[in-house]
Amino acid sequence: MDIEGRVAVVTGAGSGIGRALTQVLVAVGASVVAGDLDADAAAQTASGLGARAVGVGADAASAAGIVTMLDAARDAFGPVDIYVANAGVIGAPGLGSEGDWDRVLEVNLRAHIRAADALLPGWQQRGSGHFVSVASAAGLLTQVGAAGYAVSKHAAVGFAEWLAISYGDKGIGVTCVCPMGVDTPLLSDIRDSADPVARVAADSITTAGEVLSAQRVAELTVEAVREDRFMVLPHPGVGDMFAGKAADHDRWIAGMRRYQRTLRG
Prior knowledge:
The protein is an alpha/beta fold. The chain has helices at residues 16-27, 39-46, 63-76, 98-126, 147-167, 185-191, 196-206, 214-227, 237-247, 249-264, and strands at residues 7-10, 31-36, 53-57, 82-85, 129-134, 172-177, 231-232.
């Protein structure tokens, strides 16, 4: 996909990977609606990027919020060509409550489903469009200390795979981004948490490999969209871990138990 001149929506764009993606997309010639639940943060992301960026306060997990962002893009720039489902939450430590599960699934999974539902009719009619799912290495491996995050990210990867299989022959591209540690407020929040389970979850991320900048992840993601590639592994070692998991699942689980014991001291 030639990104120059395209129209994109980025959710969770008020900080972290979403903010970096907005900046990189504008830099390569796209016009972008930066959406975030925090309207001020969305506006801050768009400020300084010129006329090709607009900040919009919207809940990416709700059908109404998605329509708000799509309408804002259409009014400012035209129909959306690229949708980046980036907004995400870590969820509760441990198993969590019913309410915790509802929230993490709404943001990390159903937001993607609702966005695809809103976009696919128009994209099929035009024969083009690109959906970007910012998932996590947790969607290929797991997340120590956070069941909701691990499960919802597995589901996000599964949904992205389904989209790519179901609509790839109709001109619709799908890219799934699965980083480990990225220097974002989400990681900072659990690293500084008073909850020991949350801190173990953070340690499992920061000790597994290099903590990358959000800018680096954004650059690799935009490159994959341009090349119409599905999987983005900003940490190449994740591919080796995933292959080891597939080769011997029991051994991998035993290794993860040992790793968890080490983290808990």
